[in-house]
Amino acid sequence: MLNFNFSRTFIRTFAVLALFISSIAHAQLRVEIAGVGANQIPIAIAAFGNESIAPHQVSEIIKADLNRSGYFKIIDTGVVLTENSQVNLADWKSKGADALVVGSVERLADGRFDVKYRLFDTVNNKQLSSLALAANPAFIRVSAHKVADDIFEKLTGIPGAFATRIAYVTKAGREYRLEIADSDGQGNQIALRSNEPIISPSWSPDGTKVAYVSFENKKPVIYVQDLVTRVRSVAANYKGSNSAPAWSPDGKRLAIALSRDGLTQVYIVNTDGTGLRRLSNSNGIDTEPRFSADGQNIYFTSDRSGGPQIYRMSANGGEARRVTFSGSYNISPRVSPDGKYLAYISRREGKFQVYIQDLTNGQEQRLSDTVKDEAPSFSPNGKYVMYATESGRRGTLAVVSVDGRVKQTLSTQAGDINEPTWGPFMK
Q1: Residue 25 within any structural domain of the chain
Q2: pTM for the full predicted model
Q3: Number of CB atoms found within 10 A of residue 195's CB
Q4: Residues 83/105, Cβ–Cβ less than 8 Å
Q5: Nearest in space to 212 (alpha carbons), one of 229, 228, 193
Q6: 75 contacts 95 by C-beta, under 8 angstroms
Q7: Boundary (domain end) residue, out of 124, 156, 188
């Protein structure tokens, strides 16, 4: 017999069991940060010239992004410096800054805002980067995130993920909403409203579509929705449960879990619903499939060994090999973009927490210190894991760095948030 907690998290294919508790006002997420990364880079970020004309203060968004990453120590300059200002880099170095950011905002004749910036290395007394980004007023935050991405990459060698998006599910009264937001939780938009539950959103590799499960037809059905046109199509609506969609790296197929032939098993289907093919054949429940980074394998959760564990098999099907061995309950596999790590939820001593395993040597590490965690999702640069958790009996989202040092909580004033998934780099 499967216990209640297992059925709540693992067998989402059969029922929706109290995904949300109370309603939520339509509000943006608030970020709270704890912990810092090792060897923080001290960086001075000046107020941008003329930025008050823009809908959002560009320099403040850049500061918030870099501060949230845990990689930087922000030094307040107290001054306005544009990309044309004469700066004494030695002076800024003496103030403890290893890098300096300056810039400006200009309104163009066509109504767009032009964001210009320059990044200086005060240690080596040179310019590291510069950008000029023109955007409509609605996308001024995206321009600021792109500047932060450029700074992050130039100073760490790691692609920044601030200009990416996240998706999650909220509930207001009897209404469920699939929402899309910036990586910092701001600028949220509603992609879908429904009076029935929405679960398991999954981003397409190009970031233009989301697959999800909706119960609007009084049963779980998998849809693919274009976020630009809002047009959607049915990817799987078979007898029984249709659940847990996950995109192939080429964006052409979905790995899904179906109970059409009895016990839930793993299948592959084209995104337009054609070409259905069964992959797993076990006497247990196989669900939560996820493609490996290279698309050659599929990780999934199965209770074939008696309790839920994570397995790997070829994307063409065949023999499955067990991946998790520590603990008796491991679910919700997510593979890092570089294919090196596996994030998952493990129940130990009654606590549901986020773990990460090095797939090269099998070593694992606990990342979260909360106790009711679900649905981990890697950032596209592989340096952070977002997951759903509970705080004060309300669902919230949290982010933790893969080394466990930096932790963030994203929450609203009231209500539950759940089912997070972090989108890809935008082309």
Answers
A1: no
A2: 0.89
A3: 10
A4: no
A5: 193
A6: yes
A7: 156
CA distance linking residue 16 with residue 400, whole number of Å: 27
Domain that holds residue 11: 4-19+164-422
Structure tokens at 319: 């023999």
Distances in whole angstroms, Cα of residue 109 to Cα of each of 83, 106, 135: 20, 10, 12
| Contact present, 258 and 280 (Cβ < 8 Å) | no
Q: Give me the amino acid identity at 221.
A: V
Residue 155 CA to residue 157 CA, distance in Å, equals 6
Tokens 């006002």 locate to: 25
How high is the pLDDT of residue 131?
A: 97
Tokens of 213: 């499960």
Residues 345 and 384 both lie in one domain: yes
174 pLDDT tier (thresholds 50, 70, 90): confident
- With cut-offs at 50, 70 and 90, classify the pLDDT of residue 4: very low
Q: Amino acid letter at 137?
A: P
- Within a domain: residue 269? yes
- Which run of H or E residues covers position 143? helix 140-156
Q: How many CB atoms lie within 10 A of CB 191?
A: 19
